[in-house]
Each structure stands twice: as C-alpha cells, then as structure tokens.
Amino acid sequence: MARIPGEGLAKGLAVTMRHMLRKSETQQYPEVHPDLPARSRGVIALVEENCTVCMLCARECPDWCIYIDSHKETLPAPEGGRPRARNVLDRFAIDFSLCMYCGICIEVCPFDALFWSPEFEYAEYDIRDLLHEKDRLGEWAATVPPPPAHEVGAESPKELSAGSRPAPARRTAPPPPVKGPAEGASAAQETAQDTAQDTAQKTTQDTARETAQDTAQDAGREARRPAAEPVKGPESRPRREPPRAMRDIRSIRPPGSLPRNAGSPPQKKDGPEGER
C-alpha cells in the first residue's frame, strides 16, 4: 500500500494544534508551592527532646548515614533515692547524599523522635553540604503535618485510653478489733483450731491427689503393656503330624532297622550265630 507523502508531518502538526488550543495548567514554582500528598517523603525531621540515644535508628539504617554522639550525665539524687545517669545527645546528623529514604529509622524509633517532613528544598551545590546536623533537622520538625484523623467509629489509641483510665482504688485492710484478755485467748484458740483444720484438710487433699496420680500412672502403664496371648488348652491345640516322607518310611520298615545296600555283602556277626 503506497503511503501519502508528508502523512507523518501532518499527524504531528495535528497533535501540536490540538495542544495549542487547550488551556495550559502551569504551576508557578517557586512562588507557588505544589500540594504534596500527606505521606510524601521529603526529608527526615528530628524532635531532640524525644531522643534517648538508644541507637536503634543508627543500627537499623541500611546505608549507615546516621551519626550519633552522646555522653552520660548524672542527675542529683532525690530525697531518699539514689543518683541516676542518663544519656545526653551531643550530635545527630543525617547524610542525605547516602540516604535512600526507606523510612526504617522512623519506623523503629520507639520514642517518636523522627518524622517525615514534606520539605524537599534542601539541594546544595556541594555534595558534602548534604550532611545536616541536629539544628537543621530540628527546624524541619515544625513543618511535619499533623497525623490524619481517625476513622469514624475506630477505637482510640491504647496510649490515650490508658492515660484517661482512672487509677484503681487501693484496698485497705480493716483494723483489727480491740478485744479483752478473755476474748483474745478465745480468738487465739479459734485461730489454732482453724490452722489445724486447714493443715489436716490440705494433707488429705495431697494424699488423695497422690493416690489418683499413682492410679493414673498404673493404668497408663497397663495400657502401654502389650496384651498377652490367650492360653490354648489341649483340645484347641492342633495335632502335630510327621512329615510325608517320614510316614512313608515308617510304612515300609519298622523304626530302628537300617536299609542295606544291594551291592554290599552281608555283615558277619560275632559269636556262634556268625559262624553258622
């Protein structure tokens, strides 16, 4: 099939004219910032007050782009207590030239010190300037969007429900009644009797429990033992018959006599019977 000369050019001009007549949607960046999704991964922000220097984020980072330095500080002992030591954060830096934005450090942080921020304008002319310290990371914490609202009818977080739950009332033992000398002696006797009854009851229960355990063990041992074969009486035993060859031999000659060879001469007997 012959092609018309200039067909491809005409199609291209048609596409160009179609787009020229449409209204263009241009975002005037950087004057107008784009509307990013709520869960966009721009940069990692740090809340320094929540960091306890547990080093989980640095250990779990697959690129080893998190650098943490700290020192221990001893707190003064309260009244009736002992001094305690805590970790103080000296340096928290992230090298974004190595970061792969996987978010593992944010997921493993147990104290909510790291968050995703939608900020993405931190490009530098030198790659060595992409190592941002805790001051810069702390500035990005103000740009972290609030968490989305819960769905209608969803359960509240366990942290909030546990914090709003009233503390259980402590049970206090009633004060012992004041008794006279006679009442005190009778109470001591009653206490001794109750103790003796409890001891006897406990001993009886222990004995019954041990007896039941021994019985169960014996029953289990008897169940595991293989069953003995039933003993057959003399009438039930089958009669043993000799083999067929033996029956034929006995029918020919009596037991005890040996057969003679046809070619062998008769044997001589000792004594007068042999001379005959």
Care to describe what's here?
The structure is a single chain. The termini are far apart. The chain has a three-stranded antiparallel sheet with strand order 2-3-5. A two-stranded antiparallel ribbon has the order 1-4. It has helices at about 5-20, 55-60, 105-110, 135-140, 160-165, 180-225, 245-250, 270-275; strands at about 45, 65-75, 85-95, 115, 130. The protein contains eight helices and five strands; from the N terminus they run αβαββαββααααα. The mean pLDDT is about 80. It is α+β, with helices and mostly antiparallel strands and about 280 residues long. Strand 2 and strand 3 (about 85-95) form a beta hairpin. The protein is extended.
The whole-number mean of residue pLDDT values reads: 78
Q: Runs with pLDDT <50, length 5+?
A: none
* Order of strands in the sheet with most strands: 2-3-5
Helical fraction equals 25-40%
Q: How many strands in all?
A: 5
Our count of helices gives: 8
What general outline do the C-alpha atoms trace? extended
Largest sheet: 3 strands, antiparallel
The helix-and-strand class reads: alpha+beta
What separation lies between the terminal Cα atoms?
A: 138 Å
